[in-house]
Amino acid sequence: MVLPHPLPLVPAPVSAVAREGRMPITATTRVLGSSPATAQLIAAVERRTGIRLSVVDEAPAEIELIVDPNSSAPEGYTLEVGDRAIIVGADEAGLFYGVQTLLQLLRQDDSGWALLGADVADSPRFARRGVMLDVARHFFGVADVKKFIDSTSALKLNHLHLHLSDDQGWRVHIDSWPLLTERAAATSANGDPGGFYTKDDYREIVAYAASRHMVVIPEIDLPGHTHAIGVAYPELVEAPVLNDNLIADSARLGQPLPVAGETYLGWGVGHSSVRIHEERTYDFVRDVVRELVEMTPGPYIHIGGDESLGTPQADFDLFAERATAIVVEAGKTPVAWHEMGSAANIAEGTVGQYWGKTTPEGTHAEEAAHFVERGGALIMSAADVTYLDMKYSPDFPLGLTWAAIIDVRAAYEWEPTAVLDVPDSAILGVEAPLWSETTRTYRDVEQLVFPRAAAQAEVAWSPQEGPERVWESFRVRLGTLAPLWKAEGVEFHAAAEIPWS
Ligand code: TNX
């Protein structure tokens, strides 16, 4: 049953029932709680309303934040808003998500600011709810990444995949190979300015993400997408492979072809490869992985593996096996784009990231299934629904079109367990990637990411059979996020099919 007026919540909770009445929020409203979520709630209410709530350390208080491990499933929470508002999180993450839900209930009417009355019980469908930011094609600094974390964690997304290297640039400092950032980080695609994260920058991003309950997954893309490595260390890479597609695409886009040892400013793919039969390549991989592991508390290191058209298949498979084994030896779980599933002996437990379409083509489904055969699992990033860099409509000024034109409804209406022929338990969750070939500014990023990241957040969080997990409900609830996004300065695309309030 679709309620005529569902509570204005995205992603839809497991259960959410409106109560009569509203709870006023005023300068005398007190908050009880000692979790970081308490300060985050107070700061967000002040940004939105200008009202500064006070914190008290004993009852009574109008808003209470409690952690009780027995209250819900991990990351879950309950929220009641009546005369008082009480959030009980199963853990700190659950409390943080309860706060995000509470912030969506905040409304201004004739008598001032108030919370809509509600009874909510909630926990996520998938443990893994991710978003990817490509900082290699265009570099985005620490402040932008923090804003990205704020606005995606508010949608209850909990993994941030950073695509830290590609043909156009290398974006994180590595002490043992210092020329990567010295020589191969200054520019972005189109010759736009580049940049890189110092180790302290990277640690700052990781800590900030953790404070919003997001796990950072660093990706070094190998063995293809490695032209920039050759700008710093020519001995690690093969000469560029100029295939017919690359030549045709570069001509069409008016972009230069890659030249060995020179910064690459185009967008073509599949022309670069590290040297597979040189031991020095594996010394490099081992050093980079070790330094990333030292500053990455999360369990994953992403080793890339996509579109390595410049690497012969047997070499690619050999590399996939060795690189994933290096990550395991370093104590982390490898993640790889699904192509690496072609390698018979890919390290056991490697997580595959499927970026084929919702109707798989070619060998994609087979490659993805191999991760499961090897005791691993899958993250679903089906390109024709989750790719945040696809255009909303043919005339949208930003984005690409190769996977699909993805309007908000297309982004929303898909089922992650229905794409591949693997057990449902092998699907860890969903990740929505933002590739940055066409996003020259952070504002451009926000235009493509919002509102579609909210669609993927609901696909990943809300129960598959839930009464509100339908387009007609979603579009109405999504529209109610506009004041929140405006208050936070999120420059979302006001897609015409959504009734924005
Ligand atoms: C394919 S999908 C890529 C990226 C591009 C993207 C553009 C995947 C794993 N690789 O190199 O940036 O298309 O949409």
From TrEMBL:
Keywords: Glycosidase, Hydrolase. The active site is at E307. GO terms for cellular component: membrane. It holds the Pfam family Glyco_hydro_20b. Residues 8-122 form the Beta-hexosaminidase bacterial type N-terminal domain. The keyword Hydrolase applies. Residues 126-308, 317-463 form the Glycoside hydrolase family 20 catalytic domain. InterPro entries: Beta_hexosaminidase_sua/sub, GH, Glyco_hydro_20_cat, Hex-like_dom2, HEX_bac_N. Its EC number is 3.2.1.52. PANTHER family: BETA-HEXOSAMINIDASE, BETA-N-ACETYLHEXOSAMINIDASE. This is beta-N-acetylhexosaminidase.
